[in-house]
Amino acid sequence: xxxxxxxxxxxxxxxxxxxxxxxxxxxxxxxxxxxxxxxxxxxxxxxxxxxxxxxxxxxxxxxxxxxxxxxxxxxxxxxxxxxxxxxxxxxxxxxxxxxxxxxxxxxxxxxxxxxxxxxxxxxxxxxxxxxxxxxxxxxxxxxxxxxxxxxxxxxxxxxxxxxxxxxxx
Length: 169
Known about the structure:
It contains two helices and 15 strands. The chain has about 170 residues and is mainly β. It is elongated and about 70 Å long.
């Protein structure tokens, strides 16, 4: 790493980074043997956006500050999760799915939707369909999957597109 004047601030894999990112944000942290170590902070202008704790290059935990809230995390990203788990989702689909005579025995409709940062379903699309009836039924059943925990990126809830195959047997 080099500072804005061209002075090398990380030498032989060690030093303190006070660096501008391409996004315009600034991050500050210690580098030991070429790896992040101790507390790293990221700023947008002069506002603290996140702090992460590292040991030997491995992120241990972090906290993101967003809209006046602090979001703690131990993973950089987490996918959305159905509130009743995979088994609960499967059970709801099987209980509510109306079957039609399939053209070729087993038929699968692949549905895509966004789980919003509020945990709601939005923008439902069929990405690989079977027939008009099968596709409409798959969308109807997906709309019943109302209770989601949103996915997150560095602790902040974000919109994430989710793909789900619905199999007609």
